[in-house]
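Researcher: Please translate sequence to structure tokens.
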Amino acid sequence: MSEVMIYGAAGYTGRLCAEEFVRAGLQPILCGRQEAVRAVAERLGLKSAVFDLNDPGETERQLKGVRLLLNLSGQFLTTQKLLIEACLATGAHYVDLAGEVEDTSNAFTFDNQARRANIMIMPGAGFNVAPSDIVAGLAKKKLPDANELVIALATDGGVSRGTLKGMLSHIDHPGHRRVGGVLVAARPAETELEFQVAGRRFRAVYDPWLGDLFTAGVSTGIANISTYSVFPGLAVAMMKGRLLWLRDLILNHLMPLLPEGSSARQLRDGRTFVVAIASNGRTQERVALIGPEAYRFTALCLREITRAVLAGKWSPGFQTPALYGRELLEGMEGVKWD
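Model: Translation complete:
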């Protein structure tokens, strides 16, 4: 049995991750709910298993001997609970790509159980949280008395159908802002932010769903956190409640016609931009980076977190990627500090 299991390996991100692991000399077992995962595993020369998470006994049986489970299957509010409970029962560490507030905060509810079971639970291990959580932690180190944190993201590249479907399904729904250590209601695109990374200027809008609103609260302890992302103009209009007929048209009719994810060129040439600005009301400290294309960045983060866990570098209970600090990103292909 492999020491690493990838659940959701037949999806776009799952396949990219599996391919990256093989290039790195890792041999995960590829799993999922559909038979399509077997074809991916056969192409890569890996073992595979197909099982439904609604059978806890079977899930636990499949996890026997596994040291680390990577949950790359969407609908994290559903898959997260079932797989974390199986990890608690079998002693496997749990890592996923949950990138929104509800998902990351839900994983935190298992903190005490994970400590008792001596396993690590780490949501947000992909681009949407990991790099920004790390730069947020570095900004806090530069300004230990910071009481405000702003995080902003921008991407050059494509978007997978799964990501687009998830975003459009709630694009006009309220989210959160962290104020005084408490998550309060906030509207999408309610404010704007201009920021600069490596000489490029960006105009972002408020993104009230980003998991950093929860994870950075845990990792930095900063009481006031705001998160911004750069979106296309049509998406910003939908966030403000306009053009929702177009949202419905895409979700109900056009989704199957869209590319499955980033093209080979986008994966090669795409870039990501992340900045965290910590403030204490008198002084600001800024940490920023340029990274590879978002889905490629996700696969690389998962690769490095996996290597760390297998090397014994982990801590029990709920953890955020800031646990690994700058070291996780040092030397990673395509990462440059600004």
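Researcher: Any highlights?
Model: The chain has two domains: 4-125+296-337, 130-293.
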